[in-house]
Amino acid sequence: MKHRRLLVLAGVVGAVALVAFLSVAAAGSKKATHAQAAAIPAPRVPHAAAIRKKYGGQKITFVGDSVGNGHVRDTKLAKRFSKDTGIKVSVVPHPAASDQSYAQLARAFSSKSSSIDVAMIDVVWPGAFAPYLVNLKPKLGKQAKLHLGSIVANDTIKGKLVAMPWFGDYGILYYRTDLLKKYGYSAPPKTWADLFKMAKKIQDGERKDNPNFAGFVFQGNAYEGLTCNALEWIASAGGGHIIDNGKVTIDNAKARTILDAMRVQIGKVTPQGVTTYQEDQTEHAFDNGDAAFARNWPYQYGIGAGAGSKVKGKFNVTVLPHGSTGGSVGTVGGWQLAVSKFSKHKAAAIEFVRYMTSPAVEKFDAITNSNVPTIVSVAKNKAVVKANPYLKPAIASVPRVTRPAKFLGTKYNEASKVVYQGINQILTGSPASQVLPQIKSKLQQIMK
Ligand code: GLC
Asked: Which residue ranges have their beta carbon within 6 Å of ligand 1?
């Protein structure tokens, strides 16, 4: 019932607007690629002749990635798939902000639109979208066994496998090795207080030559990414996980302290505009040589190490810092592939998902795009680990924290909006003691 209300509301805009929206998103997509990606061909499709015989000539639409080089990867894989199977795939990048992608899919599903066959689904959505997605278990259940059990469980709703794990994500710290050395630091910061101190010193020095230089960049815009960043700050300061055991816990002293500590750094060791940054702006600042530290997901690694980067060979990654009372954590992110119940070509769409979530494609994605494999054997592969140092146990085994989707189901997006808007208000100047009680009462209202 609840999802119905939400989707019907969103559905007013309808399918026509969706198509317009999709084309606008496509026009604005990034074209960057990097040397590694260009050098490695997309893997061939297994059993392609049999697939061609059954579904060749059909046409499907895949709503895919738009952050970093994700669209370049999707296009390359779709081209290979089409060439091998004869199934045409039109790749449409979704809006870069996850919450906007959610709204777009919600509109399409509520209008029962058949314009989308396959879509990438954020790790926090399977519960909300389950009623609109095909159960992939009969055809892909065997392949799902290769993937991490915890993600398969996340993607299984009431016994139905509503999406296949595609790539994982967790927040990590990027730091400039050359600048740490230049300013006399032998190791990256362990606490947020250390990070602020180091960021300030490096920034003061670097600004002499580069007025755009900032100590620290992250995703401070009012969108889903800020919920992920804020969860890391709060949890790493021992302040809980926004909602714990079904109770809203965000309004506590440890959360207030760390959020206020972040607030006073805005414009001081961060660009003033960091409160409008999403993933791409963070990555651009760091890879352009304009930041000492950045919080981002693993995809940034491949771009930073790629040909067009100004920081190639000058940076490394580690776990995120923690508060004076907590320990390092990383927010769980990641994307799944799902098939719409309204698709007119479900079987062909499932074959595309089979290919895209296969070991060969995950290996390709990990090496060319530094995305986290969800297939255990791929994550252990030597070439994959070499290209992705964040997979080393010291970083990969950091405690993961999850957004409170399981307590919110269809209301997750609405609740996360309350969180990221409130946190953004703090970053732009309001004390946490004023904002957190408001977030708390709005969340309690939503959870009623
Ligand atoms: C990354 C994560 C996703 C998260 C998003 C927020 O794409 O994989 O889970 O919602 O960032 O910006």
From this structure: 98, 122-123, 169, 224-225, 228, 279, 297, 333-335
Does the predicted model carry a pTM greater than 0.85?
Answer: yes
Q: What is d(CA 259, CA 248) in angstroms, rounded to the nearest whole number?
A: 17
pLDDT tens per residue across span 92-146: 999 999 999 999 999 999 999 999 999 999 999 999 999 999 999 999 999 999 9
Closest by CA to 263, choosing from 230, 299, 286, is: 230
How far away, in angstroms, is 65 Cα from ligand 1 center?
A: 11
The rounded distance, in Å, linking the Cα atoms of 304 and 36 is 12
Amino acid at 5: R
**DSSP-based three-state secondary structure for 263:** helix
Ligand 1: centre distance to CA 96 (Å):
9
On whether both 289 and 376 belong to a single domain, the answer is: no
Instruction: Report the separation in Å between the CA atom of 192 and the middle of ligand 1, taken as the mean of its atom positions.
Output: 22
Does 2 map to a domain?
no
The total of structural domains in the chain comes to 2
The gap between the terminal CA atoms of the chain, to the nearest Å, is 14
Spell out, as residue ranges, where the chain has pLDDT lower than 50.
1-36
Q: What confidence tens digit (pLDDT) does each residue in 100-109 have?
A: 999 999 999 9
Q: Whose C-alpha lies nearest to ligand 1, atom 2?
A: 333
Q: Whose CA is nearest to atom 11 of ligand 1?
A: 225
Among residues 380, 396, 412, the one where a domain terminates is 396
**Statement to judge: residues 160 and 308 lie in one domain:** no
Residue nearest to atom 5 of ligand 1 (CA): 225
Residue 327 burial (CB count, 10 A): 14
Give CA separation, 403 vs 54, 236, 439, in Å. 41, 14, 15
Tell me which residue has its CA closest to atom 1 in ligand 1: 333
Same domain, 29 and 87: yes
Distance (angstroms) between ligand 1 centre and the Cα of 223 equals 10
* CATH code of the domain containing 420: 3.40.190.10
Same domain, 345 and 250: no
Instruction: Name the residue with the closest Cα to ligand 1, atom 12.
Output: 225
Same domain, residue pair 238 and 95? no
Q: Which residue from 71, 122, 231 has its CB within 8 A of the most atoms of ligand 1, so it is best to mutate? A: 122
Query: Do 16 and 111 reside in the same domain of the chain?
Result: yes
Does residue 163 lie in a domain region?
A: yes
Give the structural domain span for 253: 172-331+400-447
